Amino acid sequence: MRLIATGLLLAMAAVFLVSRTYDQRWPALGFVRAFAEAAMVGGLADWFAVTALFRHPLGVPIPHTAIIPRNKDRIGDTLATFLRDNFLIPRVVARRMLRLDVAGAAGLWLANPLARDGRIARGASAMTISMLQALDQQRLGGIVRGMLGKRLADLDVAPLLGQALTAAIAEERHLPLLDGIVRWAARILEANDHLIRAMVHDRAGSIMRWTGLDETLSNKIIAGLNGLLTDMADNPEHPLRAKADEGLASLAHDLMHSQEMQARVEAIKAEIIANPAMQRWLDGVWEQARVGMMNMARDPDRVMRGPIGDALRQLGETLGREPMLRATINRFVRRAVVGIAADYGDNIVRLVSETVKGWDADTITSRLENAVGRDLQYIRINGTLVGGLVGLAIHTVDVALG
After folding, report:
1. What does the alpha-carbon distance between residue 7 and residue 15 come to, in Å, rounded to a whole number?
2. What separation in angstroms does the CA of 214 have from each of 99, 120, 224, 312?
3. Distances from the Cα of 43 to the Cα of 20, 57, 63, 102, 376, angstroms
4. Other beta carbons less than 10 A from residue 364's beta carbon
5. CB neighbours of residue 289 within 10 Å
6. pLDDT at residue 86 above 70?
7. What are the residues whose beta carbons fall under 8 Å from the beta carbon of 13, sequence distance 6 or more?
């Protein structure tokens, strides 16, 4: 569009020169000359105005030009203030979220592959990629890590574990776990029977060692343990299995009702969260999620093919026919978004402001010019044509009056 706008301006200049040369011979060319002359003025004025937004026209440092590069810090602050005042205030977020049927829209989008085609999908993909690439990844990763860490710290794990264990026992879903523990114990015993033999040998008296009774005792102990594990594996009603069930039920009860047990679980959870390995994992969560989102944005159709796509389509169909599920998801999303706005709104605003301030003049100029440059070139074209029409009207009035 820039070439078209510049070409139209040059064409008007050529028409002006030709008409000015021959208007004495053909007076009617005066109308053409008036149109071209005014069109040049309008086109040049709009070229100057558009260029002055992004750079100095012809490289001349005229005052009040290169407006965007000179004011990029203020643009960042203004954009951040706009986001905070219009999107990230909790009451504003809650009011806007009440009008959104996020679950319904997601269900329609997931269930209907045709809804994912077209310019909207391509535009959304391009916007998502640009946004993910533009943001300060280190700072945003820190925000994500802090948010995940806070959510994990606030999560009351013990009652959840107790409820899950109680449900597993009631539905006998814990039995494969017990079977696995018995098989694991049998393999451990088989691989480490020499330790039992060494223990008995070291603790036996000299007479037992001289007579070989220590070896006999070791064999008896190992055989007895093997028999016990075999009986437990073959007999679902084995008394030790019943004891294990009682122990698991008691553990589930303590997890849900014992303050001492809950405090111990909370202490273990705090140690895990504070562990450097856990912190490194949290650091990597955002980067993995960002790469995954970028891959999905680049080729959403590939993601929607195969088992993942089938599962997502089934989820979309379920959301379409279950209003209670949609209401539950919408309520959860609304509370989550309001909570994020309340806890991290200031960090997000600061992230946007500092990201824009961190761009150099060429970066912010190219990004904004690419985003709105086509419309700006239309301004130049329209200015050329409108200027020409105004000039033609003035010349027509002048001829009519005199």
Report:
1. 12
2. 80, 81, 15, 64
3. 19, 14, 21, 47, 12
4. 20
5. 13
6. yes
7. 36, 40
DSSP string, 15-34: HHHHHHHHTTT-TTHHHHHH
The pLDDT tens digits of the residues spanning 375-396 come to 777 777 887 888 888 877 887 8
Q: List pLDDT tens digits, range 236-268.
A: 777 877 888 888 888 888 888 888 888 888 888
Residue 340 burial (C-beta neighbours within 10 Å; 0-12, 13-18, 19+): middle
Whether the Cβ atoms of residue 377 and residue 4 lie closer than 8 Å to each other: yes
In whole angstroms, what is the distance from residue 80 CA to residue 401 CA?
57
Quote the crossing angle between the two packed helices 259-274 and 276-298, to the nearest 10°. Answer: 70
State the CB neighbour count (10 A cutoff) for residue 165. 19
| Confidence grade of residue 195 (pLDDT, cut at 50, 70, 90) | confident
> Half-sphere exposure (CA, 13 Å, Cβ side) for 255?
18
Write the DSSP assignment of 297-332 as a string of letters. HH-HHHHHSSHHHHHHHHHHHHHHH-HHHHHHHHHH
% of the chain surpassing 70 pLDDT: 80
How far, in Å, CA of 141 to CA of 132, rounded?
12
State whether the Cα torsion 67-71-74-76 is positive or negative: positive
